[in-house]
Amino acid sequence: MKFKVCKDFKTAPFPVPSEIVDSHIKLAGALQLRVILYCLRHTYDAEINPALMAEFFAVSEEDINDVLMFWAELGFIEYEGAAFSSGAVAATPVKVAPPKPPKPDRKEVARRGMESPEIAFLLNEAQQKFGRMLKQSESSVLVWIYDDLGLDVSIILMILEHAAQAEKVNITYIERVARDWAENGIDTISAAEQRIVQLNNNRSAWNKMRRAFGLDSRSPSETEAKLAVLAVIEWKMSDELLKKAYDACVDSLGKYNVKYIKKVLTEWNKKGITTVKELEAASLAEVQKPSKEKSKSKNSIEGSIDWSLMDQIINGE
Fold first, then answer.
1. What's the pLDDT tens digit per position in 49-94?
2. pTM here?
3. How far apart are CA 113 and CA 90, in angstroms?
4. 62 is a domain residue
């Protein structure tokens, strides 16, 4: 099939600066292109109203302002005079250049996207993961991860995929993971795969412990995350035993306290207890010990944990 542009337009055409097509059409997102075309058609040499545009495109005013700033940084829109420029960068009022930010600005992101096919591909794939047009802060961080942290595009995409699976597709989490990987030399596919397996196992461990404790779905604190790895992955404790530890905490303190639960689980781990049956057997053996030996054993237990408490936990008293 062959196609041609129809020359018999029913309405008058309007000019579009060639630089938009020649230099920016590959990098610009769908909303960015729609907004600049809207401005060229409706607000040329007139004040731009972001609120009206947000209503027209059924998006937030914040998104519209973000897009307008994208084109302003490229010199197509004057954002101080609130008027549309002819497209020449020289027409933008001269300003004193601010100190260079630690992460690239819009213009730098656009430049890097045009000169580097890898960055253009990264930004496009990231937009798919986010399910929307990237904000300036998001594209800036991604370019910074590539340029400054030195992670390959394939590694960054693995971070994005991991964030999507963990339901944490936000730039703060992505940057935190990228920093961790860069600092720990995770710069190959195999190393990244191993770290993702570890992160997924840690997340599964937390979810298992959280459900045993009856907690709402949320991110764990550092103490909770470490305890989940210990209790579930290293100590291999059963769900029922985790629930017993939670019940012991609530019975004793009247509320959830992860430090108290850690003491209980640590003591049980020292005695090789991983299931409720083993807990019951250990409790029974403790009861049957001679009184002197039993007293000595009780004194070795940390804090306020004792075997009488275990009896209460097991028997539901």
1. 888 888 888 877 777 877 887 777 777 787 654 444 434 333 333 3
2. 0.55
3. 22
4. yes
